[in-house]
Amino acid sequence: MSTSPRLVTLPDIERAAESIAATCLRTPVVPLVREDGQIPLWLKAESLQPTGAFKLRGATYAIARLDAAERRRGVVSHSSGNHAQAVAYAARVAGVRATIVIPDTAPSLKVEATRRWGAEIVVVPPADRLACAEKIAAETGAVLIPPYDDREVIAGQGTVGLEIAEQVPDLGTVLVPVSGGGLVSGTAAAVKALRPDVRVVAVEPELAGDLAEGWAAGERRVWSVADTSRTVADGLRTDSVGVLNWAHIQAFVDDVVTVTEEEILAATGEIVRGARFVVEPSGAVAAAAVLAGTVAPTGGTTVAIASGGNVAPETLARVLV
Amino acid sequence: MSTSPRLVTLPDIERAAESIAATCLRTPVVPLVREDGQIPLWLKAESLQPTGAFKLRGATYAIARLDAAERRRGVVSHSSGNHAQAVAYAARVAGVRATIVIPDTAPSLKVEATRRWGAEIVVVPPADRLACAEKIAAETGAVLIPPYDDREVIAGQGTVGLEIAEQVPDLGTVLVPVSGGGLVSGTAAAVKALRPDVRVVAVEPELAGDLAEGWAAGERRVWSVADTSRTVADGLRTDSVGVLNWAHIQAFVDDVVTVTEEEILAATGEIVRGARFVVEPSGAVAAAAVLAGTVAPTGGTTVAIASGGNVAPETLARVLV
After folding, report:
1. What secondary structure does DSSP assign to A63-102, as a single string?
2. Closest listed residue to residue B25, CA positions, set A24, A240, A48, A85
3. Each residue of B39-60: pLDDT tens digit?
4. Considering only CB atoms, which chain A residues are within 8 Å of B21?
5. Which of A122, A136, B10, B280 has its Cβ near the most Cβ atoms within 10 Å?
6. Which domains are seen in chain B, by residue range?
7. Measured between beta carbons, which residues in chain A are less than 8 angstroms from residue B303?
8. What is the ipTM of this complex?
9. A26 touches chain B (CB under 8 A)
10. How far apart are CA B184 and CA B203, in angstroms?
């Protein structure tokens, strides 16, 4: 397709912000204090959302936009974890029935956390998840809530960027973890509309570096799930960014970098010790780029989005000591 | 003394809120989600302050109120940990020299964390700390910043209550941990001024239950430090509430309850797993009263103040699994 897709705008994101305010937390931007008292960066603490990740924003907004007939038919979605929980929770708050298709490789912690919000769960092999969700949508009339390649979802995730711009007057750099690209699309759109001079950097695990490869090549790349599944960052294993997301990234992102598994785990421990909230490895990826020295600070405050905190207690205990 | 002391008022606390806004975080109120999806209470996440505890509020305000001559002479304080860090950090931000007297029983994590903010540290036996701080004040002209028995400090800590009242429209109960009583005094004063019908409950470790005993007896009680030091909640080992604090508690608090060591440690783990931020045992004491069933919910939302998160990583790892 050669026509450019219409990108999400600041007014779209502002509408989303108003719509989700009663369900989603306005999360704080918290300093990461190193042992010597230095503060190399601040963290947007999305782990504190009721479902433990930023995904609640997009899911809440997508469900808020349904009309009465759609609400009666319910929603369906597919996700490795955090989007699943988000759709289940947002649907429950909105009084809408939800079915979630989960790949059989998803961490059991995230599966159980989805079940508790009352959603119906269907477990399938990773490669079948989209087809299965589409089949359920076709058969039951349920509305598919896509995890990232969707204007409403992007606008919802973009409220993270809106809040950061409001919360940090001297913002210099925003770092955003990337999987399908919903968070980086919306965040970059909001930040660049409000503060064109702020640098927006997308960060990926090296082992799921499809966007970094595509960024260097100048065209969207798709990796195998077998490859992206190697990373410990289980929330960032999507095989490529979405089509709409790629367009946003090209329009609004300044750079794409990758971090190693070792850097991700070190950052996970450092955030829990130095900023005193819980992150899962995926949630530490953006900060890892600064802590490992991959992204150098420029003028102004550096903020990394700590995208989620759904991690097994045993894993957390291991990175702590 | 039979004359009643003048209590801190809502305008005092509102002035403090304006004064500390640039240094202290407006912390979020975060849901504690149990494994079955129930949310028994919400937590005011003071662990996220730059020094990891609410103490930064009172220290920042007390230092902001110094005049130019006092600022030049510097400040001195005594504390087992979180107030020490708070004074050191607030003094550094304000460009004021700080000396902190620390009891030799304080956790080394808290001592190191104080040192990194550039304060001068003096270590003494617990019983000598007030005398030592007063001696330094007398000899150097430094201004003593008391940990709790002080109008400015109470007004600063009261901003926690002000924020809770603003953040939670249907507030029913606020639970506050007690040691010297600074936090409960200010929080209760703010909450009762704004919402007289909201219940304010003070919570102590049973092993440092001087206030619970005094509350039952109708007069302030002092315990031995040997007794209060038995609790794992190392931030709550003060031997009694302050005189001014006792007056606030009598005026504004509805009930005082205690929790066991086992309940404190269970709540610590449950908060980290279910609300995804770090608390030290002292910071879990207020929530423990609800989680253990000691305080039953009434109408409206229940909020417990999670007062701090300065805990050794090894201790945290132990309560997690």
Report:
1. HHT--HHHHHH-EEEE-SSHHHHHHHHHHHHHT--EEEEE
2. A48
3. 999 999 999 999 999 999 999 9
4. none
5. B280
6. 10-54+152-320 (3.40.50.1100), 56-149 (3.40.50.1100)
7. none
8. 0.94
9. yes
10. 9
